[in-house]
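User: Here's a chain of 153 residues. Predict its fold as tokens.
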Amino acid sequence: MATIKQLYALAANMGLVHGEDDAFHQIVHTVTGKEHVSELTAKERETVFEELQQRNRHEQVAGMMTEAQQRYAWRLVYRLKELDTSENPAPANERLAGAVQKILGITASPKDPLRWVNFQNGSKLIEMLKRYVKHAEQKAVKQDDGIFTGISE
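Assistant: Prediction complete.
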């Protein structure tokens, strides 16, 4: 079983520990829903440790998303938000974190949703976001065509 000391050591080695609201604590919150490492059960500590190890291996194996990929992903998410017709659309950062989770199966924090996405997965994410945008645009056009304007010719 992983100890709190081991969690902090691994996170520090990965450059994730910088204070109370750092990437390490975001991971802890995302994985367990808890704010403080001291609140974790032994099972939760083990889950967080495994998540950190997986991310560490992932980061070492592949180069991360380029800045251009990240900007494009954000543009697509903002376009999706713009096309959303619901009364309370989700914020863009939550939307992108959800897309990373759904499309790539990577646990993502709304504070930094692209932190663990490598170049290859970034390409996959962008392609799926493009599909989502295309679908949302088609849906918007259909809704516009179906609206009765009341104007007679």
